[in-house]
Amino acid sequence: MFVNLYRWSYGIVLYEIFTIGGNPYDGMTGEEVFSFVASGRRMRKTSTISPELYELMLRCWNKEPSKRPKFSNIVDWMETSYTRS
Question: Which residues are in the Protein kinase domain (predicted)?
Answer without folding.
Answer: 1-83
